[in-house]
Amino acid sequence: MMSEAALEEVSVLSSIYCGEGELRVRQQDAQDGLMVQINSSVGGERRLDVSLLFHLHPPYPLCPPAISVSSSSLSRTQCQDIRQKLLGQAAALPPEPMVHRLVERLQECVEVTEMCEEVKEEEEEEEWTAVLSLDHIRSRTRYVGQLQRWSLQLQLTGRLLLGRCILVILLGARPSIKEFCRLLKTVKVDVDSSGRKCKERMMKVLIESPSSPSARHGLQGFVVKSYESLPELSAAFQELNMTEIYQQILPSLSG
Questions:
Q1: For a tag site, which of 17, 61, 121, 127 has the least CB within 10 Å?
Q2: Looking at the keywords, is Cytoplasm present (predicted)?
């Protein structure tokens, strides 16, 4: 049986959201409760139409409502993210009528979701530079071929510097660099001392930072280069306009 609190709340909501198409009671059933749809326009300069569907089960407000979020202006992932935020807030509220409070918090949820999306897009667009340290390369042809394939697939440019320290310099989108590192640690790219295929578990990220404009011009393709001494290694970084990065990782190489 529906609670009087729920019925009273819907009556109050009808007077608050009284514009054309703002509120609609989708279901009113003694066994299954009430379903109320509220259509709201939120956001800053770019107004977004968002539809919230609240299912008030008979025990409501002793239990929070079920919530669905839909919008033609937001992606499915964004709608799911907003839904999870609203459900979390509903669970944290005291057991009393809460639909109006949740609708009021929709603006905040949309702003947070859009901000996270913008940060993610900026991160994907911005180019980063990373320098990785590898423990060893025994099966050189196999290992180098795999690194070159990954860099091509992930649209990364880079250098493999072979010497006393084995270094991989990568330049590209940060998520692609992270995926490259994940592959290194999870795919069998080399062989161990017994000849068995093994993963690069000892890989270390020495540095990861936004790329400088000069570095973007210096690095093209994925090239393998050998060096004999630290001055030669320093020259390799200088050639790529990455002298500052070399100075930052030098303590790690000398250790």
A1: 121
A2: yes
